[in-house]
Amino acid sequence: MFDVASRLPITSTRVFIGSSVGYIGAIPYYEDKLGLPPHGYIVPRHELDSHLLDQAEAASATVYRACAATGINRDAGHVRVGIRNQSRDLTLNSRLVVGADGAQSIVARSVGLARNDPRYIAISQRAYVEDVSVTMGEATICFDDDIFPGYGWMFPMLGGRANVGVGILSETCHRYGLSVPKLFAAFIAKLRTRHPGCARMRLVSRPLGGAVHTYGGIRRNHFNGGVLIGDAGSFADPMTGEGITPGMESALLASATLIRSLERGRFDAESLSQFERDFRRYFDPAMRFLDLCATLLRNRHFREFWLRAGMRGFARAGSDPTFARVAGSTFGGLEVRPQSILTQIWSSIAADIASGCAQMSLGFVSGERSAQAGSLCDVKAWQRGWWHSIIEDPLWTASWLADVVRKSMNVQATLWTADNPRVHGALSPR
After folding, report:
1. What's the whole-model pTM score?
2. DSSP state of 267
């Protein structure tokens, strides 16, 4: 296990909407229940990966170090994996293979399951910084015009260090010619200006780029002789891009299918398809809803509307813990309950409209034209988004709208699910 005493618990967050602070407080969906701690820790990726590798080796795995996989093929019921190191090429033979080799999975490419749809790929750049002075355990999340749909982050560590980065949808980068390294550099400059604890912040590592494939892009994660898990299987959260937790869960789900296949001596795609039934049952109630939310955000022309709505939502979260806990789960955590989230959002909209009508009536009587409800300004921002989107690219807008409709229909199949299996860690397949 990791030495948690040497880690900084992440217990609170500061949220920026543009240059304004929208929320400061406890992370609402972290609760001490179901055996989970009420916080998270920042662990450098090289430490986590080394720990997992050591644990696998201790559990009897044979580790081939300083090697790269070159491809796989299946012949006469055996999977052959080609690997290469600095001095020689080798071929490993097995009855089963698990593709756990990341977003650019060579296993997925070798079996024709590579995912290249930019609608389901997020591109990021991150680095480590020092001389950060923040409240102990306070993470920072930033939503801004230039990185929409996406966000920036700063996750603190002990000793004034922090993990800083930005992530944005690949489709947006391609459509608008955006450079993620330039967005990262601009984000660093904004943090130094906006965040009082980042004025002296300095980079201490080379910025690293990466990509994640989100859950909405999954077609099939099993094939003759194996399965895909983690980033290779597109198990990242569609809203946040977080992939470590669902990746671990996908591995546990896959293990049951693999054990059954070994016991029965069957390694064909039909037998391994049980993995898909298991992970769909487990993930779909939350992930389909999050996929719909991410699809709604894909249209960059609506960023003014969504940022305005976000500011209003975070303002309410600051005074309404129940709203913060339920609606806030859209941005992380395991307890995503679509019915409760939608109920809260619609009740909030109804209250805003009622309040706005009252403000407008008072303003009309008093002659103060400036007295406008925020919700009516949101409607204008929504109308501007539609107009600009249709004018710029009507075909893309129609395609996006079709995706929204399709995802809305997909959500209907799980919206009324009585329970979310992820809440209880219900990983045992039925």
Report:
1. 0.87
2. -
